[in-house]
From TrEMBL:
Catalyzes a salvage reaction resulting in the formation of AMP, that is energically less costly than de novo synthesis. Homodimer. This is Adenine phosphoribosyltransferase. The gene is apt. One of its GO terms (cellular component) is cytoplasm. Belongs to the purine/pyrimidine phosphoribosyltransferase family. Its EC number is 2.4.2.7. It catalyses: AMP + diphosphate = 5-phospho-alpha-D-ribose 1-diphosphate + adenine. The keyword Transferase applies. The keyword Cell inner membrane does not apply. One of its GO terms (biological process) is purine ribonucleoside salvage. GO terms for molecular function: adenine binding; adenine phosphoribosyltransferase activity; AMP binding. Keywords: Cytoplasm, Glycosyltransferase, Purine salvage, Transferase. Residues 48-150 form the Phosphoribosyltransferase domain.
Length: 170
């Protein structure tokens, strides 16, 4: 997609030494590219076949919200600790540069039967795997995942038995 890669800046050794951090926030500085990106993500058949979107805090919310509006699919969120009220389902996970926990409100997961997971970037796949486990533990189906960027050399996609779609593989 024209211009997309030029809007993603790399910061070496952030947030820790050895990590080449891909800052996708520049995409929002160019609404035409952002719109084109959202239309492209929204046209993905994994999204079309899912009852709902699940987006991951925080950068996943930017793309998940826009795709939800574009496709009229409901959106559920997976959040970091201490952010969500009510009964939660939680799981710990490892990502490229650390460990964390994600939670989803039980009630929100109960509402829909099949999900597509939306995030900004796939690195090792630990984050998406965590959300997939939470969805499956609740007896619901994961149809696939759609991200803006995939760091191909980390082979995150090999962890999954569902379709992994990315707009830009770098
Ligand atoms: P992983 O679980 O290793 O696939 O990491 C994916 C999650 O961590 C996404 O939510 C990304 O926002 C973030 N992330 C991991 N590695 C990077 C990176 N090199 N640049 C930007 N974000 C990253």
């Amino acid at each position: 997609m024209k211009n997309l890669e030029s809007l993603i800046k790399t910061y070496n050794d952030f947030p820790q030494k050895g990590i080449a951090f891909k800052d996708i926030l520049g995409i929002m500085h160019d609404p035409e590219v952002f719109r084109e990106l959202i239309l492209k993500m929204s046209s993905n058949k994994v999204i079309k076949s899912s009852e709902a979107i699940i987006s991951i805090e925080a950068r996943g919310f930017i793309f998940g919200s826009a795709i939800s509006l574009q496709t009229s699919k409901p959106m559920v969120v997976a959040r970091k600790p201490g952010k969500l009220p009510g009964k939660l389902i939680k799981e710990n996970y490892n990502l490229e540069y650390g460990k964390s926990t994600l939670s989803i409100q039980k009630e929100s997961l109960e509402k829909f039967n099949s999900y597509v997971i939306i995030d900004d970037l796939l690195a090792t796949g630990g984050t998406i795997e965590c959300v997939a486990n939470l969805i499956r533990k609740s007896g619901k189906k994961v149809n696939g995942s759609v991200t803006v960027v995939e760091l191909a050399e980390l082979h995150g996609r090999c962890r999954f038995d569902f379709p992994i779609e990315s707009i830009l593989s770098i």
